[in-house]
Specification:
heterotrimer; A mainly alpha (273); B alpha/beta (428); C mainly alpha (296); A: 273 residues; mainly alpha; 13 helices; 0% strand; globular; B: 428 residues; alpha/beta; D-Maltodextrin-Binding Protein, domain 2; 2 domains; four-stranded mixed sheet
């Protein structure tokens, strides 16, 4: 590698580190500054003050723990349901030949082809009839529906990478397709499952519009909605906002620290083609 | 006092002995849009007291957001998942009334009126189509906030006319400070500031007596021209401002003056918090000698459960409890300096004036109450109330017209004419 | 394959795919169908009743300049996002494909912006870009890049570009990883052979990386287009479609028409029209791309 290229690479790395890291640095450090320092007209890069008052206020005045629990429940259930539904469907679309397969497959991808806002009103009415308004289950169903097409599409690509001989050999050993799927194929596409799981989790974790309308009571709110509420509409309490942002980021960062590697390996080993 | 009301009061005020027969308590839900944590906490305090004193009723609160409530309330009501009580501003009520979700609360309001004496304009804002559609709870009015020391340093007096206002804003715009923070967002806040300027320029009436629109008139145009001439002294992000940004601008000393309902709690908690250096004045008028006025929002609560249902009765009992002078002040002080009493006995209530923050900022709050004498709300003035204002307000046409001037650069006269056309279209 | 086997396979496939399809049908397809019905009626407020009006709503919407303006803005929004996101993502992916100390950590944590709730992204940038208390403006002024604070949402152009930036900031890392996935599948010996032939980095990129990466990019472009077309929350929460309607893309217009204008049927009409356009795009695109190599 030439010196010029190394320099360019270094510059690129610095650029992206700043682009992604700097906002988070400002947010997290800002959440520990006293209000007067946050709104000072000459901002400080490294905090001069340290306070936990914003966190105190946030935790004492809001049901942060409840929101967090709701978000985790909804995201985890959505992830599980997405996997449960997407794996067999992706397998069917990949391995089994049936009439209308291509059409149906294309139809599923069309799920992203309309503004999701469109279904908000009719969906509210349907859920109301089923008694699902103001339940976490409603959010799980919506999140799963929106994550499914991508999940099916990605898993199908993973199935496609399994050498046909492996499956053939397993089948000749006399396993019915479902047993083959469970015992032989799933372990082979584990990275794919990890990537899909994280995709589903993050989609549910970050969803705002449906959660804000379908949930009516405070005790069932998810983190983004509860958080938007605390920040309020009338006053800008930047310290409270920054503490809230930090606490909203924290859980998913912790999660990602544990399993984030899978996501990247999963994606790089299979996925898009 | 009517027998019914005395029964309510008796029930609300006394701690009743536990009912002999185990009885299923009536549950009622209150939706309000006072979401900041300290307001929610104060309301919860009052609810807890009420619930303790009324073992047969359980009131629950669910704070909501103005940004979503316009979508959520109609959807929830249509789905049968709506609340029993819902806070309202005058232009939100007609929407629910059109949905058929409201019944008139005229009798209840007149009972309360007999006991507490409502400010007339607060009731008027909810009286039309042969009924009263919500119970007034508090007033919000807008004022000019400043720091005396900052004005003094720049050698500027507190402005009382548009001319002085502009000169002050110009003088105060220096060294990274903006003279006058004014929003230009297509948002309720801008509706409020624009109307505050309009009404001090003689353009308070949007309707003729017969209900035809009179928005397009020389006074309105003059108000928009003036507002436009103030924009150079406002921060460049004013076109995206809501209430919070204005307060942050004032608190951070980036804005020397702002128009706002109150800045007291932000000033107290996030800025220097020195009561002696916080000034509040009436909004300047177009010509010297005019009486200054301000926009006044009578907030109210709508009752959604069917007449004669146990939920309705429980809701009424809770509202009567809130309006009792010993509770009312604490209710209003969930945000000191923001919510003004709408009842005569509430304005004198010990519970209102004894709050520590209110005591600290007593002179400011007295000034706010004095400014509120002449409060008006567009579409609800001089008894000319036409529910079509709901659509005009929901679409923020006043603010939209301002953006047409400030962002699109359209001459004010033309923009105001287009604004009136837009209002006519929306009223259909 | 015999007919019987094929029939059995068909039944099995139906069994396997049915749950997913049922959910998609209930949560997406059925409401979509209701939207079509709504667009033929005259419903004003959500939840109220309306008379059947045939194609009146369509005639009204198609004659409304606000609709065409929103359509143009949506097109601009999709294009601008595609360009910025792809450029950032491609650059990031090429860097992550190199070996440098910490590359593993970088590969994992680049998605930081994507795993943060949208609302938080909105709050962060509203704060950073604010003129009272934010971090960016003082930085610009003190370094002399700007003479006075910049109103990032003040003019139509600035607001539009700020939104494109924020949306791309959120999404580009995800796309970068997808591109990285494509890059890792390019056999290393191709590069080695080219290097032996004396090709410089730029030539290797132009002759090997780019042609082999193009199909991946094309697929991502389709998905990215659909996803960014549908972006609603970032725009709504940051500018509400303003100033002066300059960021009112079709989803924003739909929401506003339904919930602020209380013309639910008109909103449904706009929704149906934009769905038709998007579907046409998606069908054409998936037909030419997604299925081409999928049946290997």
């Amino acid at each position: 590698m030439t010196a010029a290229w190394r320099l360019l690479l270094g510059a690129g790395i610095v650029f992206f580190v700043l682009l992604i890291g700097l906002p988070f640095w400002w947010v997290v450090t800002g959440s520990f500054k006293v209000p007067q320092e946050i709104i000072a007209r000459t901002p400080t890069f490294i905090p001069r003050s340290f306070t936990l008052q914003h966190y105190d206020l946030l935790l004492s005045a809001s049901a942060y723990g409840t929101y967090l629990l709701n978000s985790l429940l909804v995201a985890a259930a959505s992830t599980l349901l997405t996997l449960l539904l997407a794996v067999p469907a992706a397998y069917a679309f990949f391995r089994i030949e049936f009439r209308g397969r291509a059409t149906l497959y294309r139809l599923i991808l069309l799920a992203y082809a309309f503004p999701s806002i469109v279904v908000l009103v009719p969906l509210f009415a349907t859920f109301a009839r089923l008694g699902l308004v103001d339940t976490r289950l409603a959010l799980v169903l919506v999140n799963t529906a929106f994550a499914l097409p991508f999940a099916i599409w990605m898993l199908r690509a993973f199935f496609a990478q399994i050498p046909p001989e492996i499956e053939e050999a397993a089948r000749l050993d006399g396993g019915p397709p479902l047993v083959v799927l469970w015992r032989i194929l799933l372990p082979l596409i584990a990275p794919g499952l990890g990537a899909v799981a994280i995709f589903a989790f993050v989609s549910a974790w970050t969803e705002y519009v449906f959660a804000s309308v379908l949930i009516l009571t405070d005790a069932l709110r998810t983190l983004p909605v509860g958080f938007a509420g605390i920040i309020g509409q009338y006053q800008v309490n930047w310290g409270l906002l920054l503490a809230g942002a930090t606490l909203a980021i924290l859980p998913v960062v912790a999660l990602f620290a544990l399993i984030g590697r899978w996501f990247v390996t999963g994606l790089t080993e299979g996925a898009v083609k | 006092m009517t027998p019914r009301l005395s029964r309510l009061i008796a029930a609300a005020a006394m701690v009743l002995p536990a009912p002999v027969l185990a009885q299923e308590a009536v549950e009622v839900t209150l939706w309000h849009m006072e979401q900041p944590p300290h307001r929610v906490a104060r309301i919860q305090e009052l609810i807890d007291e009420f619930n303790a004193a009324n073992p047969d009723v359980v009131v629950r609160q669910e704070p909501q957001n103005w940004g979503e409530i316009y979508a959520k309330a109609p959807a929830a009501i249509a789905a049968g998942a709506g609340p029993d009580m819902l806070f309202a501003i005058p232009d939100f009520t007609p929407i629910l009334k059109d949905l058929g979700a409201l019944t008139s609360v005229e009798d209840f309001v007149s009972e309360l009126d007999a006991r507490h004496d409502f400010v007339d304009s607060a009731v008027e804002a909810y009286s039309y189509d042969g009924g009263v559609w919500a119970v007034p709870l508090y007033n919000m009015t807008m004022h000019l906030w400043y720091r005396p020391s900052v004005l003094e340093e720049a050698g500027v007096a507190v402005p009382t006319t548009w001319e002085e206002w502009r000169a002050a804003a110009e003088a105060l715009t220096a060294d990274g400070q903006f003279g006058m923070g004014l929003p230009a967002n297509r948002h309720l806040y801008t509706d409020q500031t624009v109307y505050s300027v309009m009404l001090n320029g003689g353009a308070a009436e949007i309707y003729e007596e017969d209900g035809s629109l009179r928005f397009d008139n020389p006074e309105t145009v003059a108000a928009y021209e003036f507002y436009q001439s103030m924009m150079p002294f406002s921060p460049p992000d004013a076109p995206s401002w809501t209430w919070g940004e204005a307060e942050a601008c004032f608190a951070s000393r980036s804005c020397a003056m702002i128009l706002q309902f109150t800045v007291i709690s932000t000033y107290e908690t996030q800025a220097e918090g020195d009561p002696a250096d916080l000034g509040v004045a009436p909004i300047p008028v177009r010509e010297a000698g005019q009486e200054p006025g301000t926009i006044a929002y009578a907030n109210a609560v709508m009752l959604l459960s069917p007449e004669d249902s146990p939920e309705r009765e429980a809701s009424e009992r809770f509202i009567a409890f809130l309006l009792e002078p010993e509770n009312y002040g604490r209710f209003l002080n969930m945000e000191p300096g923001l919510f003004m009493p709408v009842t005569a006995d509430g304005a004198e209530a010990e519970s209102f004036w004894s709050d520590p923050v209110v005591q600290e900022y007593r002179s400011q709050i007295e000034q706010v109450i004095a400014n509120s004498e002449n409060g008006k709300l567009f579409g609800f003035t001089s008894g000319r109330v036409f529910p079509a204002i709901a659509a005009i307000s929901a679409q923020n046409v006043l603010a939209e017209t301002l953006q047409d001037v400030v962002v699109n650069g359209r001459p004010p006269a033309e923009a105001v004419a287009r604004g009136q056309a837009r209002m006519e279209e929306l009223s259909q | 394959m015999t007919g019987a086997a094929s029939g059995r396979q068909g039944r099995l496939a139906a069994l396997l795919a049915a749950p997913a399809l049922l959910l998609l049908g209930a949560v997406l397809a059925w409401p979509l169908l209701s939207a079509v019905l709504l667009s033929l009626q005259d419903v004003r407020i959500v939840g109220s009743q309306g008379a059947f009006v045939g194609s009146a709503n369509y005639e009204k919407v198609l004659a409304d300049p606000a609709f065409w303006r929103a359509a143009r803005l949506s097109l601009g929004w999709v294009l601008a996002n595609a360009v910025l996101q792809t450029a950032l993502a491609l650059a990031a992916a090429l860097i992550l494909h190199q070996g440098f100390p910490g590359v593993r950590v970088a590969r994992t944590w680049i998605v930081l912006t994507w795993i943060v709730p949208t609302v938080v992204v909105v709050m962060i940038w509203r704060w950073l870009l604010s003129t009272s208390g934010g971090m960016i403006n003082p930085l610009l002024v003190s370094t002399g890049l700007a003479e006075r604070p910049v109103g990032f949402f003040a003019t139509p152009e600035a607001a539009f570009m700020s939104l494109v930036f924020i949306n791309s900031w959120r999404w580009f890392p995800f796309i970068a990883l997808m591109i990285l996935a494509g890059l890792t599948r390019i056999p290393a010996d191709l590069h080695e052979a080219a290097r032996v032939d004396g090709a410089g980095p730029w030539q290797r990129f132009a002759r090997i990386t780019w042609p082999l990466l193009a199909p991946t990019l094309a697929v991502l472009l389709v998905i990215g287009t659909l996803l960014s077309f549908n972006v609603f929350d970032i725009i709504w929460l940051l500018t509400g479609g303003g100033p002066a309607g300059s960021t009112r893309t079709l989803p924003v217009l739909i929401y506003e028409t339904a919930f602020r204008g209380y013309r639910v049927s008109e909103a449904a009409t706009i929704a149906v029209l934009s769905t038709l356009v998007l579907m046409a795009f998606a069908v054409l695109a998936t037909r030419s791309l997604a299925l081409s190599g999928a049946d290997r």
